[in-house]
Design a protein that fits this description.
By secondary structure, this protein is mostly helical. Helices cover about 45% and strands about 0% of the residues. It is built from two helices and no strands.
Length: about 60
């Protein structure tokens, strides 16, 4: 297996660019995690149905959006 040694011979600017891009990506992932709202999901009130038997579910079921 041959290993590319381009990172060893890269200058400081290249290393800085890689660190900056990594930090930006981590910031975007963290921001998406912070601002993701899933308060509309209520899994505790969904009707439970066992597999293998036919069931009829009625009532006010939540809409999938």
């Amino acid at each position: 297996m041959t290993v590319s040694h381009s990172m060893y011979s890269a200058d400081g600017k290249a290393h800085l660019k890689i660190v900056v891009v990594g930090l930006l990506c981590a910031t975007v992932v963290a921001a998406v995690g912070v601002f993701a709202h899933n308060s509309g999901i209520d899994l505790g009130t969904a009707p439970l149905v066992k597999a293998g038997s036919a069931k009829v579910v009625g009532g006010n079921l939540p809409a999938i959006r």
